[in-house]
Amino acid sequence: MKKQIRLNAFDMNCIGHLSAGLWTHPRDRAQTYKDLQYWLELAKLLERGKFDAIFLADVLGVYDVYRGSADAALQQCTQVPVNDPVLVIPAMATVTEHLGFGVTCTLSFEPPYQFSRRMSTLDHLTKGRAGWNIVTGYLDSAARGTGLDAQTAHDLRYEIADEYMEVVYKLWEGSWEDDAVVRDRENGVFARPEKVHKIHHQGKYYRVEAIHLCEPSPQRTPLLYQAGASTRGREFAGKHAECVFLGGSKRIVASSVADIRHHAARCGRNPAEVLMFAGITVIVGRTEQEARAKYADYARYVNPDGVFALLSGWSGIDFSHYRMEDPVTYVKNDAVNSMVEAFTTKSERPWTVRELVEYGGLGGPTPKIIGSPTQVADQLIGWIEETDVDGFNLSYVVTPESFTDFIELVIPELQERGVYKLDYSPGTLREKLYGPGRARLDRSHPAATYRHADPHNRGSSIRDCRSRCSEHGSDVTRL
After folding, report:
1. Does pLDDT of 467 surpass 60?
2. How many CB atoms lie within 10 A of CB 304?
3. pLDDT at position 461 over 60
4. C-alpha to C-alpha distances, 61 to 13, 101, 105, 145, 438, nearest whole angstrom
5. Alpha-carbon distance 434 to 414, whole Å?
6. Fewer CB atoms < 10 Å away: N or C end of the chain?
7. Is the pLDDT score of 314 beyond 50?
8. What three-state secondary structure class fits 164?
9. Residue 366: left (phi > 0), alpha (psi -120 to 50), or beta?
10. How far is Cα 462 from Cα 180, in angstroms, rounded to an integer?
11. What is the pLDDT of residue 336?
12. Is 13 helix (H, G, I), strand (E, B) or coil?
């Protein structure tokens, strides 16, 4: 049986997401990001194309590593200004029935108690179509904006994130039992207090004593995305993530896929159920010649300073100190280590700064597929077969044109080959990916540790939950 290709549309609530300078293209509509109508039309377009989800990136802070200031980022609207991505999702949910919504939220600067309520609210409003991309941040400017001198060290951020996940799992999975809410109007009882539990978490980085403020949402825990591909990030993904966003060449992606599945298996999870999405940019035309012409047209609008602002922010390397023909060298820092590795220590050849700018100007530093619908489909299927990914995070060059072209030209070709769904499955976002009756996280997932005995977690009990939690120095008790 052929693997069905999964698709996320990659966007951000800003003007200049990944294609620096393309906001000046006459057909680009990114400048209308403040207009809710843009998001409503995009959601309807993606649902017409049967996309699994729109994956909304986000970043706190500004790209101020290049030349030591945010000037280039501001001049080229390089992910600044950037609006809150969560706020557009409920509106998009009202004009769609099936499209999922993966949203990036940085855990480093928001307490888990408040954040857990925000995501439960989102899951309620979308009727179970909410997903969270777990990130820890990578910009010192974000840390300074929240009162810190600099961001926490890279690997320590993941250690803190592990404990953060423990807290939100307890709130989402362990605070309210499934039958806590009765809505008994006749007797004036909305919820049964004995079925609502206070969590007591006394950890190294967090202390929480509270009940979850929301009644259980359709998925309880939102679908969990993760995008860190460093050594520590892959370990974290194997433990927590259901969907992982990966970048780099086929060789790098294949290695990351295998490593993450290995970590998932070590955690007692089914490694095949950790869905892998490779970042990719597609430029398609009715013929290869038309696609190449479109690529050439787009390339005329790339702004090098905007590209440098992005690359310097992601890598933590100020590229103003390099000449265009200099090779890119590995520098260990607290930014996005996996991106630096992809073009240095893990690359099959050395990259010059010029090559990196030319490569990253359209769709960011993701592989590019340029060609006719048949050629694009061939390459996408090749990626699936050679790397064991499950699908793609599709970056746009010009919005919504890039998505429209893909839907009108590539989707029919994939459907004809039997590798793309003809229609959506019913249910929540998690059920659409994993099947009926899978609205909640699988019981092999660490979040299930904190559940009370219920039909979704047969054999588990609050005693088991307490026992497992006590291993981490915490408890779940009745209110």
Report:
1. no
2. 18
3. no
4. 14, 23, 13, 7, 36
5. 21
6. N
7. yes
8. helix
9. beta
10. 15
11. 64
12. coil
Residue 426 has pLDDT above 80, yes or no: yes
Vertex 435: Cα angle to 430 and 439 (nearest 5): 40
- Eight-state DSSP code of residue 338: H
Q: Which alpha helices (H) appear in 241-287, and where do they start and end?
A: 250-266
Mean pLDDT of the chain: 90
β-pairing verdict for 197-202 and 474-478: antiparallel
Amino acid sitting at position 380: L
Residues in the chain: 479
- The region that residue 453 occupies, defined by phi over 0 for left and psi between -120 and 50 for alpha, beta otherwise, is beta
For residue 288, what are its two tokens? 């290869």
| Tens digit of each residue's pLDDT (9 = 90 or more) over 181-222 | 999 999 999 999 999 999 999 999 999 999 999 999 999 999
Q: Residues 369, 380: contact at Cβ < 8 Å?
A: yes
248 token code pair: 């780099």
13-57 per-position pLDDT tens digit:
999 999 999 999 999 999 999 999 999 999 999 999 999 999 999
Find the mean pLDDT for residues 419-436. Answer: 97
Alpha-carbon span 227 to 234, nearest angstrom: 9
CA atoms within 13 A on the CB side of 431: 17
Look at residues 217, 208, 127 and name the one whose alpha carbon lies nearest to residue 170. Answer: 208
Question: Over pLDDT 70: what percentage of the chain?
Answer: 92
The terminus-to-terminus CA distance of the chain in angstroms comes to 50
> Is the peptide bond preceding residue 400 cis, with omega within 30 degrees of 0?
yes
The mean pLDDT of 314-337, rounded to a whole number, is: 80
**330 conformational bin, left if phi > 0, alpha if psi -120 to 50, beta if neither:** beta
User: Could you give phi then psi for residue 84, rounded to 5 degrees?
Assistant: -65, 125
Distance CA 253, CA 246 (A): 6
Q: Is the peptide bond prior to 367 cis by the omega test (within 30 degrees of 0)?
A: no
Give mean pLDDT, residues 97-105: 97
